[in-house]
C-alpha cells in the first residue's frame, strides 16, 4: 500500500518548507502546489503548478490527493497591505482551494489559520476556542473569514490556529529576538513581562500529522502551541543560553518600556513583549496531539544552530 498523498501549499515559505520535510520524514508523499515554475518545491516528492485564485485549474494538482494542507497566504508581518489583499488571498483563495479539493474527492482540508483569528496580540486570561473570536486586524479577520467559509462546505476540514512559530530560518519578531540574544549587550526587558505561548516548528508538524490521521469528522478550529508558556525574560534567557551568552537582561518598568516603544513606532512589539498571550491546547490534545519538544530546549537549539552557522 502506498503512503498517503498530501497536497501542500506554501512550500517556498518557512512553515511550508518545514512541513514538507516533516511529512516526508514520517512516510507521507508530498505534492507541492506551486504558483510558478520558478518556485522551488523544497523536500517535496512532486510539484504541480496552479493558481490558487483560479482553482478550476487545480484538478490535476489535486488528483488522488487524500488531504490538502494549506499553509500559503499573506503573513501578518506584511503590514500596510490593503484589507482587500488579505481577503483575496487568505480568505477567498482558501475557500476556492477547499472547494476544488471537495470536487476532487479529497478526504480532508487542513487550513493553517492563526491565533490572530481568535484574538489580538495579547489577551487577558487563557485563550481557548470557546473564547468568542475577536481579531483586531485585517490579517486576523481574513483568517477567521476563511474558517467561516470552510464551515459552509461539505468537505471535512480543520483549522489550526498557531501562535508564533519558530525554528531554523524563522523571520519577523522571533528573528529579531534571536539577533538580540546573540549580542554581547544587556537587553531591555519589560518588568513585568508577558507570558507567551510559542510553537516550535517540530510541534507544528506533530499537530498537522495529528489532524491528518484523526478519526471521525473534525470541522473545527484548534489552537496549537508548545506546552510551556514563558515570559519574555525566560525566552531571552533560553536563546542566550543556546548562543553561549551569559549577559543578564536589563529590567525596565513595563509602562516606560511601552512608552519608549510607542515613541519608536514599535507599539505592537511592546504589547507583545509586555502583554500575555497564553492558549489552551486541550481540544487538539484530545485528538492525540503531544508536543515533541519543550520551548526552552527548542529555543536554545535554535540559537545554538544560528550561532554555529
Automatic annotation (TrEMBL):
Ranges for domain NAD-dependent epimerase/dehydratase: 7-214
Domain of life, source organism: Bacteria
Protein name from the UniProt record: Epimerase
GO MF, one annotated term: aldehyde dehydrogenase (NAD+) activity
SUPFAM superfamilies the UniProt entry points to: NAD(P)-binding Rossmann-fold domains
InterPro entries named among the record's database cross-references: Epimerase_deHydtase (IPR001509), NAD(P)-bd_dom_sf (IPR036291), NAD(P)-dependent_oxidoreduct (IPR051783)
Record-linked PANTHER family: NAD(P)-BINDING DOMAIN-CONTAINING PROTEIN-RELATED (PTHR48079:SF6), PROTEIN YEEZ (PTHR48079)
Signal peptide annotation: none
Pfam families: Epimerase (PF01370)
UniProt GO cellular component terms: cytoplasm
Amino acid at each position: 500500500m502506498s503512503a498517503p498523498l498530501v497536497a501542500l501549499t506554501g512550500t517556498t515559505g518557512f512553515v511550508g518548507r518545514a512541513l514538507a520535510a516533516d511529512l516526508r520524514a514520517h512516510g507521507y508523499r508530498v505534492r507541492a502546489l506551486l504558483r510558478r515554475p520558478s518556485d522551488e518545491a523544497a523536500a517535496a516528492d512532486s510539484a504541480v503548478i496552479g493558481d490558487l485564485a483560479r482553482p478550476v485549474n487545480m484538478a490535476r494538482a489535486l488528483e488522488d490527493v487524500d488531504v490538502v494542507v494549506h499553509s500559503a497566504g499573506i503573513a501578518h508581518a506584511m503590514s500596510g497591505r490593503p484589507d482587500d489583499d488579505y481577503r483575496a488571498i487568505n480568505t477567498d483563495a482558501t475557500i476556492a482551494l477547499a472547494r476544488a479539493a471537495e470536487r476532487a474527492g479529497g478526504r480532508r482540508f487542513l487550513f493553517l489559520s492563526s491565533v490572530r483569528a481568535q484574538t489580538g496580540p495579547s489577551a487577558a486570561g487563557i485563550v481557548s476556542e470557546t473564547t468568542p473570536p475577536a481579531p483586531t486586524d485585517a490579517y486576523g479577520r481574513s483568517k477567521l473569514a476563511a474558517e467561516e467559509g470552510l464551515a459552509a462546505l461539505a468537505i471535512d476540514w480543520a483549522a489550526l490556529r498557531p501562535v508564533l512559530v519558530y525554528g531554523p530560518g524563522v523571520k519577523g519578531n522571533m528573528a529579531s529576538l534571536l539577533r538580540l540574544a546573540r549580542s554581547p549587550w544587556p537587553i531591555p526587558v519589560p518588568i513585568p513581562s508577558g507570558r507567551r505561548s510559542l510553537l516550535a516548528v517540530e510541534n507544528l508538524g506533530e499537530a498537522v500529522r495529528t489532524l491528518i490521521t484523526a478519526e471521525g469528522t473534525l470541522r473545527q478550529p484548534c489552537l496549537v502551541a508548545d506546552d510551556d508558556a514563558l515570559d519574555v525574560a525566560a525566552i531571552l534567557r533560553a536563546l542566550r543560553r543556546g548562543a553561549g551568552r551569559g549577559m543578564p537582561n536589563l529590567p525596565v518598568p513595563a509602562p516606560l518600556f511601552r512608552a519608549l516603544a510607542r515613541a519608536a513606532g514599535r507599539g505592537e512589539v511592546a504589547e507583545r513583549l509586555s502583554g500575555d498571550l497564553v492558549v489552551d491546547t486541550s481540544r487538539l490534545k484530545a485528538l492525540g496531539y503531544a508536543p515533541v519538544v519543550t520551548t526552552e530546549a527548542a529555543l536554545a537549539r535554535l540559537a545554538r544552530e544560528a550561532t554555529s552557522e
